[in-house]
UniProtKB/TrEMBL annotation:
The keyword Oxidoreductase does not apply. The gene is lysS. The lineage of its organism: Bacteria, Bacillati, Actinomycetota, Actinomycetes, Micrococcales. This is Lysine--tRNA ligase. Its EC number is 6.1.1.6. It is an enzyme of class 6 (ligase).
Length: 510
């Protein structure tokens, strides 16, 4: 028989995919018809697996060239390479974590019919079970000399070319193919799990308690953002997907859970770009008897511990090979002072709106907002943000853009809020929390006026939250951090790469 090699060398056309699917469906029917035993067929319910590919690779790492171990194993993996010759077939099997091992199917070991079936029925992408002795080939490649094999799951569609890089569109829309084809995609999933585990370890070591708060809320709040709206049939009322867990976590602090945090999903009906996603993972934490300085210390520890969990040190290596240092104590700069330095004149909370408008117009910055603080923030982003490469806490924000934050203890018109910038993007935000229910009500009233004026991001007056505050909330520091953005800081990737299954615009399917 002529030698055939199969490794998805060329990307199949749509017509070729359709033809291959028809051929594979016919093989599926043949496998099903060949046996009524659920342990066989095209999709067996159970297989006699005794080891995994990573376990075998670790266990027999010292096996010499062209050497037999004398030990039998049964394992399964996806066929990602196949080469068929007359009396001996080779296949590379890949486990879910990307580890690979060679399977050798020979006439002498399996017999004529089994070898013929292998050549006829096994395609790239199939999951197969093989049992046999662990050996090394003449080239020293760890292998299984197959004495028995079965289809574990018949693939109906062909894999993409594993030798070519998948397009970003394919990686995002078909993450399952990305995970099969690309080591970085698998690493992203593992790194994210390590980061979440690290966050929980750090919180646990500091006496924080993890809780869960509602995702469906009768009133959206905790941030300035446009919400998603849905309807409950059971309660016959409109509900909002939460934009932040803040108002419920503060209720927990009122109730006596003085160190509390949550890692969960938030939803904001806004734009999507390289740093924003409508659905995202969020960490929020609150510490009674802390303030925005202690919560900045906590945030730095959380991120540095996460860096160690991913890379073993504070210096992380991004996907492009760049090293980024997250170690040391991070700088803390004033928003107003750094903006003043950038524009060459003193900017304060008393700077008139007319002057802020002039400064914005001079830079061609279009700002459609009634609050002076919004102009300060937009001007700061234009002049200063892009230059912040190292982790930097930007301190002390305008009062009128931060309705849930305590007023600054020494500077009128400012609040005790910081944003943490890493690589020029916002990673986290922290506050000295506003716990005075009277002042909080006044702030909510101002927000309600903005909402009535048509601002879709303004908060509504939340009477139940105010009632909780009236029972007394201790002075507290609070912080929020996007988990997806934390992965961006640790890996150098865009947000759609750090989310396993990001929301993308749907395309028509013919």
């Amino acid at each position: 028989m002529a030698e055939t090699t199969t490794d998805a060398a060329a990307e199949p056309t749509a017509e070729e995919v359709s033809e291959q699917k028809a051929v594979r469906l016919a093989k599926r029917e043949r496998l099903i018809a060949a046996s009524d035993d659920l342990a066989l067929g095209a999709y067996p319910v159970r297989l006699p697996i005794t080891a995994t590919i990573p376990e075998v690779r670790d266990r027999f790492v010292g096996l010499g060239v062209d050497e037999a171990s004398g030990e039998q194993v049964g394992l399964a993996g996806r066929v990602v390479f196949s080469r068929n010759t007359g009396k001996l077939c080779f296949a590379t099997l890949q486990s879910g974590d990307g580890n690979r091992i060679q399977a050798m199917v020979s006439l002498a070991e399996v017999g004529e019919q089994s070898l013929a079936d292998w050549k006829e029925l096994v395609d790239l992408g199939d999951h197969v079970f093989v049992a046999g002795e662990v050996i090394t080939s003449r080239r020293g490649e760890l292998s299984i000399m197959v004495s028995e094999w079965r289809i574990a799951s018949k693939a109906i569609l062909p894999l993409p070319n594993l030798h070519n890089e998948l397009s970003e569109e394919t990686r995002v829309r078909s993450r399952y193919l990305d995970l099969i084809a690309r080591e970085q995609a698998r690493k992203n999933v593992i790194d994210r799990a390590k980061v979440n585990a690290s966050l929980r370890r750090t919180f646990d070591s500091l006496g924080f308690i993890e809780v869960e708060t509602p995702m469906l809320q009768v009133m959206h709040g905790g941030a300035s953002a446009r919400p998603f709206v849905t309807n409950s049939n059971a309660f016959d009322t409109d509900l909002f997907l939460r934009i932040a867990p803040e108002l419920y976590l503060k209720r927990a602090v009122v109730g006596g859970i003085e160190r509390v945090y949550e890692i969960n999903r938030n939803f904001r009906n806004e734009g999507a770009d390289s740093t924003h996603s409508p659905e995202f993972a969020m960490l929020e934490a609150y510490q009674a008897y802390g303030d925005y300085n202690t919560i900045a210390d906590l945030t730095q520890q959380l991120i540095q511990d996460a860096a160690i969990a991913v890379s073993g040190r504070h210096v992380v290596t991004w996907a492009d090979g760049t090293e980024f240092d997250l170690g040391g104590d991070w700088a803390r700069i004033s928003m107003y002072d750094s903006l003043s330095e950038a524009v060459g004149e003193k900017i304060t909370a008393e700077t008139p709106m007319s002057r802020l408008t002039e400064l914005a117009d001079a830079e061609g910055i279009e700002i459609d907002h009634p609050l002076p603080g919004k102009y300060v923030e937009e001007l700061w982003e234009h002049h200063v943000k892009g230059g912040l490469e190292r982790p930097t806490f930007v301190m002390d924000f305008p009062l009128d853009t931060s309705p849930l934050v305590r007023g600054h203890r020494t500077i009128p018109g400012l609040v005790e809020k910081w944003d943490l910038y890493v690589r020029g993007f916002e990673l986290a935000t922290g506050y000295s929390e506003l716990v005075d229910p009277v002042v909080q009500r006044e702030r909510f009233v101002e927000q309600a006026k903005l909402a009535a004026g048509g601002d879709p991001e303004a908060m509504r007056l939340d009477e139940e939250f105010l009632r909780a505050l009236e029972f007394g909330m201790p002075p507290s520091g609070g912080m929020g951090m996007g988990i997806d953005r934390l992965l961006m800081a640790l890996t150098g990737l865009g947000i759609r790469e750090t989310i396993l299954f990001p929301l993308v615009k749907q395309t028509s399917v013919e």
